[in-house]
Structure formats: C-alpha cells, structure tokens
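Readers of this paper often ask what the protein records in our data store actually look like. Such a record has a labelled line for the sequence and another for the backbone structure tokens. Nothing more is needed to write down the fold, since each code stands for a local backbone conformation. The record that follows is passed on verbatim for readers who wish to inspect the format.
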Amino acid sequence: MRPLYMIKYFDMAAASDKTDAEFIATLSQILTSSQLMSVLIRKIFTHLYNYLPFLTSFVAYKDHFGRPRTISIDSSDAILPSSQFAIDSLVNNLNSVTDYFEPAKTMFRGTFAVHPIKWEDRNLGLVGLKFKDGVPKKTKLYLTMLANMLASRIFFSNRLESEKDQRELIRSMDSLTDRSSPHSKDYMAKVLDLAGAKLNAPIGMIFNFDLNSQFTKFVFNETAKIVWDNYDNLRNQVTYALQECLESDEIVLKEVSGSGIVVADYRLESIVALPLKTSALEYAGLLVFVGKEPLTPEHLEIVKTCATFLDTCIIRYKKEDLLGRRLNKYFGRDILGHLIKNQEWLNPRKESVSILSADLAGSTDFANSEPDAMVVFNHINEYLTTIARVVREDFKGTLDKYIGDEVMALCGAPIKDRNSVSRCLDCGLEILRAVERLKKKHEKQGKIGLEVKVTINVAPVIVGELGSWETQLDYTAIGDGVNQTFRIAEYGLCRKVIVHENVYQCLKDSKYKFELLDSVAVRGIKNKINIYTCLGVK
C-alpha cells in the first residue's frame, strides 16, 4: 500500500507520463524502506540521475534537534568536499533561506535548481541539483515530488528519533536511580548532565524561589557551577527567563540576545526554563538549560521528560532535608541516613533501651564565681559538645536532651541493637576519658576544669517523638526506667560510671569489671536497688 502523502504525486505523474509514474513508484519504494538517511538519499539520487543527469546534488536538512545535516554527491556517487562549505553555510541559515521561497516553488539560478523541503508550516531543509548545460524540462516536477516525499520522511524520522532519544534518556535515568539515591543533589546533577547531553546544552540548573520571587541556586551541574559566577550576561538573561517562566507558569524558550555568550570554545545560543511541579501542582522549583544551538519543539520534549524525573524527587528531597535538619540534633550522620529511609522507626513503641546520664560536676560553682556570663556558657558548652560528640558520632547513640548541664542519651533506639547495653557502657567510659582530656587542657590554660558523673540503666521504656505538633517535637524516652536512672544519678561519683543493677545483671559475665557501690532506696520502689561502679575492662 502506498503512503497517503504519495498518492497525489503518483496519480499526477501517472496521468501525464508513464515514465514519470515509474519514477515516482520507484522513489516511493526507496523512501518507505527502513534505511539510514544518508544511504536512502544516495539511492534516491542514483535513481534520479537516470531521469535528470546532474553534476551535483544535495539534500540539506535539520535533524530532530535542529542540527544541520548535509548529504552532497555528484553523478559518480562521491561526496564533494569542495562544495561542503557553501552547503554548510546554506544549512546554518536554513530558516531564513526557506522562508524566502513560497511553498512548492522551485528556484532556478543558471544551471542550479533548489526546492524547499517543508512539512506544513515547518521548514525542514532544501534539495538541490546542479546541471552542466542547463536545467532539464522536468526538473521542477521531479524536485517538487522529491521535496514533498522527503518532507514526510524527514519529519517522521525526526519524530521517531526524538522518541528514541526520550526512551534512551529514561533508561539512563532509571539505571542511574538503581545506582544512587534518587533524592540527593548528586543524583539530580547527573540527571541534568544526561539530559544536557541529549540537548547539546552543557549548562543545567535547578532554582528555588521564595515568596518574593527571589531565585536561589539549588542544584547546578559542574559546568553551570563554573560559568554562573563568572558570566554576568548569562546570569542576567537566565534571571529574566526565570521571571518570565514564573509569571506565565509555562515553559519559556528564548534565544540568547546580543552577540551571544561565549564560554571556553563554544557559543551559547538558547535558554529554556520551565516550572517543576508535582501531580498536586505543588511547586518544586524551576529547571533551566542553556544550549549551544537553537532549541526546537523536539528539544522541549526532552526537557519535559527530564522534568518528570526531577519534580517529585525535589519535593521529596526537601521534605527529607527538613526532617534531617530536625533530627540532626539527636542523631549522628550514620543513624540519620537510616532514619530518613525508614521513617517508621521514629513511631512510638515500647522497647528495652539503655539510658545514659552524664552530669557535669563543678559547673554551678564556676558559674557563681565567674562574672562574665559569656565565659560561663562557652566553657560549659565546650564540655557538653565533647560529650555529645562521643554519644552521636563515636558510639552511634541518640542525644535525647540537655537538662541544664546534664546530658541524657539513649542506646538501642530508634534503631534496635542487641548490644546496646555494652555499647552504652563503652560510651560512658569514653565520656570519662574525653572529659578528663578536656579538663587537663583547660587547667594547662589556667582555666577551671570540670568533671563528669556518668550513670547508666537499661529498662523497658516508651520511645518516640513527644511534644507539640504545632511547635516542637523531641525524640525521647519516658517511663519508670528513665526516672530510676536520674534518681540513682544522685549517688554518682566524679570520674566514675555508676550502673543500675539491671546493667550489672546483663554484663556481669562479660569483659567488664564491676564493684558494688551501695544499696540505695529509690522513690517509688519498695526494695532497695544495688548500684555498681564499672572499673573498666578485665
């Protein structure tokens, strides 16, 4: 079956001349074959030469990304390098040249005949022939039929190539998702690079904006990072495109104005910006690409494909970033990463948890004797920071809260750990050593050194985020086990780790050495509780 776009030309030729009908029939077979464009056009001109002997022929067109493509041959089917410069110049100005021609009108200049290749109102290229002694009679007919058939082939070929590029981009992004977190800035920068390679756009950027329409950098690929702060012209033109995009709430495509922007050894020609939104029409940011060549509607499809990957992950990144900022004061980096991926671990639950209290000794006397409040706070904060670092970073504990100059920490929540008791005890012993090092440092500097009393208990408690949903939530533990920890802390000793009997029962047969300190009465408990001093490792 003949394609519809060829029927009228076939019928026209058949009605006038049998030879013309044969020409168009063979041409139709060539054009509908699935071959590379370069091979196909060479076959076309080899076939055409039998009807119109020419010296030189060429097809100049733009591919699906608007890049100029030229195929030039002579009657011996050899590429003509000598004519390449003139043809390239013609292709680079394709729009202005083809606009000059009326549709379906062939232009003759001496022994040269050119016909525009158009699809509807889109200029796709030119087809031309050069003859030796003059233009044959049927040149206009054949060039018109050839140009219209090529228009369909080029248009649909470009559309298929564009769809192929989109599929390849999606596969590349899917593969990237498998190898890295899809909610990190590094991932988003790699997505910008992948799409930029398809667009021939080396600069890819994502912007945040506030209620006053002030734009801030969010994710830049490496080229954008280098260029942005050094090219005022680029920065200004991108800012204008962003403002227009935000006002119109639509995709904005702009040519770089003036003499363009030259970066390294290439010139930037175009800017495309579009809003990033979730399915709930929630703004995620603004996406911008700056390309080396004018962008076409096919480019925009690639941009939109990229945007569908980015908008949702930007929203999720921002939510996770907000969660990370809120939880960062409790958890170290390792635990924080696990919690962001498994947020259900923060839900309230009853758990056996190791509880640690670290109480500074001597801070009250120091505060009473030192008249400068800033000196007092800086001095005490240095000790509290040291303790917090040991808890969060060295032993992966949870920094529950500060109660004046006392620190409360947890081990075994929110991430369960069967070794939480020994880890908590190791943490307490390291706190003693760290505070002792800091004390000696201060004493060498002529400052007052502080000491610490550490108390540890293990008990079933309820852990989770507690507080006001409207103002502040804190990750903490509540229950009788917490109360008992602070009550036996009253019997604590400087530079010692005191443990509840529960801890002793868990670890009495382990590597640690314990010594009974006392049997103490605790409010709310009928029987006295044995408390022990940990003397370190056997």
Observations:
- The chain has a mean pLDDT of 82.
